[in-house]
Amino acid sequence: xxxxxxxxxxxxxxxxxxxxxxxxxxxxxxxxxxxxxxIHTPHTAAEDRYExxxxxxxxxxxIKLPGVSLGLWQNFGDATSLERQRDIILAAFDMGITxxxxxxxxxxxxxxxxxxxxxxxxRDLKPYRDEILISSKAGYGMWxxxxxxxxxxxxxxxxxxxxxxxxxxxxxxxxxxxxMDPDTPLEETMGALDxxxxxxxxxxxxxxxxxxxxxxxxxxILRGLGTPMLIHQPRYSMFDRRPEEGLLDVIGAEGVGxxxxxxxxxxxxTNRYLKGIPAxxxxxHSQFLGEAQAQNTVYLERASALNDIAGARGQSLAQMxxxxxxxxxxxxxxxxxxxxxxxxxxxxxxxxxxPLSADEIAAIEPHAVHGTEWL
Length: 375
Fold this sequence. Notes:
This protein is α/β, with parallel strands linked by helices. It has one domain: TIM Barrel. The chain has helices at 31-37, 82-94, 112-125, 153-167, 186-199, 212-225, 247-254, 291-295, 297-312, 317-325, 341-348, 358-364, and strands at 55-57, 64-66, 68-71, 99-101, 133-138, 172-177, 202-208, 229-233, 257-261, 333-336. The strands form 2 sheets. An 8-stranded parallel barrel has the order 3-4-5-6-7-8-9-10, surrounded by 5 helices. A two-stranded antiparallel ribbon has the order 1-2. Helix 5 links the parallel strand 6 and strand 7. Helix 5 crosses helix 6 and helix 6 (212-225) runs parallel beside helix 7 (247-254).
């Protein structure tokens, strides 16, 4: 994904590293969905949905998250059919995935993932609201002018109001500040999260893409306000190991949970590119990956070696990559995207394998090299 760093995450449908307008507000939840999906009867959830999923406690809180959660960063904007989105979202719930992760700018275009999810939720999942944990975030550019970006109280509260309108919800379960703000005092940003929780528009507060030192200070501020931080959402995989540089120590000591995004390194920790680049695959049209990354000889050597270790365990490289991030109890959940039900089912199946042994972790270590993704 290039050389993106924690404070410069580029997830979502809009250009997000610089201050800039992400596009006009999306139409309310359900309108597009109602036009396109009216032939469906409302979904009835599988009765056995909780029998095989593994749930892990989020820090020292009362919340448990599924070992695998569904992220709507990609594949849930207007470029993907609502039929496919519906199939994936509902299949996830039937597999025991109780957590859906969104952000104001997910799409593309920005806002469309929340709108599309809101429509599907209203028709198919609303009766199960108390069984579902929904999160959203704000921190990247969403509208023009000085109040539509970063971490001011005005931006965060206004953005959440827009997100709730798009999704047709009264509240989200978790609301995150999406990235560090170099200009806004941290006390203002954390004060906004505290106000949001106290207003009932979110049940818990979290941060994403914060470094260890800023996370530690944010935890201190929120605790002093009486709204403890529930969770951190960092980027973490065998090829991006920055959370090991102090962040995991901080959240472990402070009793904060974590849900890691890009555990598959945007598909590089799968077997998809080991024998060439398939026609039409994501990397051929991705704004986050380039074909040169999947053709780099060092990457191919490392990924092939990891694939061999996974094969010896009788699982896919993707499944082993998910188990690898979950080897650490400080990681609560692995956040995955999916372009099909089959892909999601394969990822969830990672939880059915025996944990990685100490010998297997040691065998993985020489090939799980930070920075491989950006060669």
